[in-house]
Amino acid sequence: MPGLFSKLLGHPFVYDQVRPRIVGGIDMKPLYDLLGPEGRKVVLDVGCGTGDALRHLGDVERYLGVDTDPIAIDAARRRYGDRPNVRFECRHLHAADVIDFAPTGVVLSGVLHHLTNAEAEGVFRLALGSPSLARVVTADIVFLPGNLFNNVLAMMDRGRYCREPDAYAGLGRRAGFELEKAFVMESSPGNERVQYFVMSLTPRADA
Questions:
Q1: pLDDT over 80 (residue 70)
Q2: Which candidate, 24, 70, 116, 178, has a CA 20 to 30 Å from the CA of 126?
Q3: Confidence (pTM)
């Protein structure tokens, strides 16, 4: 039954249509704004899901979305596959991908809370392999003191590694990044019941 529940939560219709209604709306525009002009040139979207990032990245020069869920990738290709310089791949990310694609911006939206500390730091280090990297942006569910509704939904999420803000920030720092900005963001304007922890990180000079 847990496997079936996880599959249901990950289905594109549930993820794109049902989940936003349950939490009162989801607006990730502030996350993609953090990429800035430099980061938006060549974007690597790790765990891209159904390609929702492209709703906010109309001016991207090149985009690569990588996800291991074939259903989500099929949905992304149907939605955005006809856009020029946009590509979706159903597989794990490899170091060679980062070097060859040379992203200026890497998106980890809803990724870190699915990974152990070692796995998350490994993804950050993969991003450092880009010779053109300007910025990595992340957004994840977060445990917040006193926010019962948010915390219960976080515990019900498919991801088993929801953290407090400082723990998320530590992942990037240990992997070789400077924390440029970090804040708790409402899932949509005026909705304080469900919140995400958002970060923008830049490569540290000694990394």
A1: yes
A2: 70
A3: 0.87
